[in-house]
Amino acid sequence: MSKSKDTVVCAISEKDFLTPVETMAYLDITESTLKKWRDSGLPVIKIGGRRFYAKEQIKEFMLQFAE
């Protein structure tokens, strides 16, 4: 396995990336809210037809709207 693949496996195993269901639980939001946020610019990573959200990008997205 190359170094870049090892880095990805390590990041995923530490749960830096969440599935949509995990993201909804993590943020305590509904599926419709997650879709609205995605449509408003919440970055999503698509791999093999599956969606993932990076915790760091979720935090950055939410901080845009913090007062």
Task: Pick out its properties.
alpha+beta, 67 residues
Q: Can you count the helices?
A: 4
Number of separate strands:
3
In order across it, which strands form the biggest sheet?
Answer: 1-3-2
Radius of gyration: 13 Å
Mean pLDDT: 87
SSE run: HEHHEEH
Distance between the termini: 44 Å
List low-confidence stretches.
Answer: none
Structural class: alpha+beta
Number of domains: 1
Q: How does the major sheet shape up? A: 3 strands, antiparallel
Architecture overview:
The chain is α+β, with helices and mostly antiparallel strands. The chain has one domain (17-63). It has four helices and three strands, in the order H-E-H-H-E-E-H. It has a three-stranded antiparallel sheet. A hairpin with a 2-residue loop joins strand 2 and strand 3 (50-54). The longest helix has 11 residues, at 3-13. It starts with a helix and ends with a helix.
